[in-house]
Design a protein that fits this description.
alpha/beta; 2,3-Dihydroxybiphenyl 1,2-Dioxygenase, domain 1; 2 domains; nine-stranded mixed β-sheet; eight-stranded mixed β-sheet; 5 helices; 17 strands; globular; VOC_core; Glyas_Fos-R_dOase_dom; GlyoxalaseI/FosfomycinResist; Oxidoreductase
């Protein structure tokens, strides 16, 4: 099939304590508030051409509003919409004008687990800049990880309908397959699917300039008293660094850097047993992965399943 998706654009969250969430992302986390209007705000990463990488919305219940991906052209938007309709996928909206910062042309639909997914093209590029040495703020959005009660069903749906390719799998002797890393480009993963008890957001990851900036950012959050879940360390799958924190609403967010770039012509997926030393963390510097960390990563049950966000 033609691989139409080009990159991850933004992840949109709804939260009851909107002001506290906005203070976190636009403050210690290091994003820039681009615009705000009556309980909805758009936050950019200074090094990214995307208009925004996180959208926050004030709501009665916490939920994942949507995950947004880019495609190369309006024609690709139309092609994908036709393909999804033919495949029996439920569209939320028809292709048309996108009414968010930067505009564009796109549409929304539900994935197999009931998450709202948006695809768009022709979004105006944001004036961004090079992140300087020792500047410990996110360069861009790196990837998103989603919890699914049936990770292979979800994996197959994303492969069939959106052209994702499997990069690697994490496996455990007691649990079996635990996570699939999925790509839409030479970047090791733009999305991963984790086996969880319910549909929910697992974590959102932000790319830092380099190791030093990643460690400085990690240290800034620790000094600010933000709760660290796991890290600092370096994964085997993807070969990227990681430190995971909890935002004020209990969503897991990650600082990372040096995510692996693959040669897609020669790459073969690995299956890694993450019960073995050095798989979850090559360095051995992170606190051990345990049931408490896993439970936090499962997040709360998402109340937005098969319910399109109001905006």
């Amino acid at each position: 099939m033609n691989h139409l998706l080009t990159h991850l654009r933004h992840v949109d969250l709804a939260v009851p304590d909107y002001d506290r969430q906005l203070d976190f992302y636009s403050g210690v986390w290091g994003l820039t508030k681009v615009t705000e209007d009556s309980g909805i705000s758009f936050l950019a990463a200074e090094g990214s051409p995307e208009q925004y990488v996180v959208r926050l919305r004030k709501a009665d219940e916490k939920r994942l509003d949507l995950v947004s991906y880019g495609v190369a052209s309006p024609q690709d938007v139309d092609t994908l919409a036709e393909r999804l309709l033919a495949g029996g996928v439920q569209l939320i909206s028809q292709p048309g004008t996108v009414d968010t910062p930067g505009g564009g042309y796109g549409f929304r639909f539900f994935d197999v687990d009931g998450r709202t997914i948006e695809v768009s093209a022709d979004v105006e590029v944001r004036q961004h800049r090079k992140i300087e040495e020792k500047e410990s703020i996110p360069v861009k959005l790196s990837h998103v990880v989603l919890n699914s009660p049936d990770l292979n069903k979800t994996r197959e749906w994303y492969e069939t309908h959106l052209g994702f390719r499997l990069s690697d799998t994490l496996w455990h002797p007691r649990m079996g397959e635990a996570m699939h890393f999925m790509r839409i480009s030479s970047q090791h993963h733009s999305m991963a699917i984790a086996q969880g008890p319910h549909t929910a957001l697992h974590h959102v990851s932000f790319e830092m300039r380099g190791i030093d900036e990643y460690m400085r950012g990690t240290g800034r959050l620790l000094r600010a008293g933000v709760r660290k879940l796991w890290g600092p360390g370096r994964h085997t799958a993807g070969d990227n660094t990681f430190t995971y924190f909890l935002d004020p609403h209990g969503n897991t967010v990650e600082y990372t850097t040096e995510l692996e770039t693959l040669d897609e012509d020669t790459w073969h997926p690995h299956v890694y047993d993450f019960s073995e030393d050095g798989v979850a963390d090559q360095w051995g510097t992170a606190n051990p992965m345990n049931e408490l960390i896993a439970k936090e990563s499962f997040n709360d049950v998402d109340r937005g399943v098969f319910v399109a966000p109001p905006v």
